[in-house]
Structure formats: C-alpha cells, structure tokens
C-alpha cells in the first residue's frame, strides 16, 4: 500500500505544480506587411505570365493567341516571360546589393586552407599581431 500511495502522491504533486505554475509560451508576433525573400521572388516570377492553372482559362488562351493585353503591353507569352525575367533580375540584383553592401567588414574568417597564406602570415610567427587587412587576432595557446 505504501508504494501505491507514494506513486499516487507524486502524480498528485506533478498535477498541482502544472496547474499552479503553468508554462508561459511566448508567441512570436508577426511583423505587419512582411514578405520573405522567397515570397517576393515567387510574386515577381509570376507577375505578368501567370502559372499553368491560371493560363488555361479561355480568356487567357484568347489573350495569349491574339496578344491583346493592355494598351501599353501585349500579352504574348514570350513577352510576358521576358518582362518577368527582367523583374526577377532587377529583384535579384537588389537583394544581392542589400546583402553585400550593408557592412564593409566581413565578420567571419574563411575556412582554414593550407595554401592561402605565406610563412610571414603564419599564426605561429605572429601570435600577438593582427593579420594585415583584417580585424582578427589569431588565438594562441600561450597565456596573455
């Protein structure tokens, strides 16, 4: 009887602590008007020439055959694809510029490679000096 009472009391203690001290989950608040990079590329890719399922409607079939489109742009498929490609290219260049031009410093060093340095740049010879042109200090096993 003592063993059963002990397991029952431990179960009761676990249940009461779960009720008295509930775990608080912090949900991430969504950022308004935020689109991921892949969503923006997807939207740009299908801006003028829609996907297959939208292109099979009779209206789109007639538009792609006659090229009526709007006043300034025709709707021939090859021209729509060219406009989509131009938009994706512009977006791609903008994303690369944003990624590469935000910070002038490269904060992570390259992977170790035995063929990309000379003996003058060796960490064993220059343990306490900065590598020329970077902000990195080579770690040494000696105390400072």
Question: Any key phrases for this structure?
Answer:
144 residues; 5 helices; mainly alpha
Low confidence ranges? none
Rg over C-alpha atoms, rounded to the nearest angstrom: 31 Å
Residue share in β-strands: under 5%
Number of helical stretches of at least 4 residues: 5
Mean pLDDT: 75
By helix and strand content, what is the structural category?
Answer: mainly alpha
Give the strand tally.
0
Query: How can the largest sheet be summarized?
Result: none
> What is the 3D form?
flat
**From N to C, what is the helix and strand string?**
HHHHH
What separation lies between the terminal Cα atoms?
Answer: 65 Å
Binned, the helix content reads: 40-55%
Notes on the structure:
This protein has 144 residues and is mostly helical. The protein has helices at residues 2-20, 37-45, 52-55, 58-66, 77-100. Helix 2 runs antiparallel to helix 5 (77-100). The radius of gyration is 31 Å and the shape is flat. The mean pLDDT is 75.
């Amino acid at each position: 009887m003592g063993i059963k009472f002990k397991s029952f009391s431990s179960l009761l203690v676990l249940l009461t602590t779960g009720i008295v001290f509930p775990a608080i989950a912090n949900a991430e608040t969504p950022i308004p008007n935020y689109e991921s990079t892949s969503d923006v590329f997807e939207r740009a890719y299908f801006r003028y020439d829609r996907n297959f399922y939208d292109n099979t409607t009779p209206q789109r079939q007639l538009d792609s055959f006659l090229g009526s489109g709007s006043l300034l742009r025709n709707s021939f498929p090859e021209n729509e694809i060219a406009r989509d490609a131009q938009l994706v290219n512009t977006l791609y260049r903008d994303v690369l510029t944003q990624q590469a031009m935000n910070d002038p410093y490269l904060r992570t060093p390259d992977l170790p490679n035995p063929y990309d340095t000379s003996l003058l740049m060796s960490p064993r010879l220059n343990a306490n000096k900065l590598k020329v042109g970077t902000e990195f200090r080579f770690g040494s096993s000696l105390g400072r």
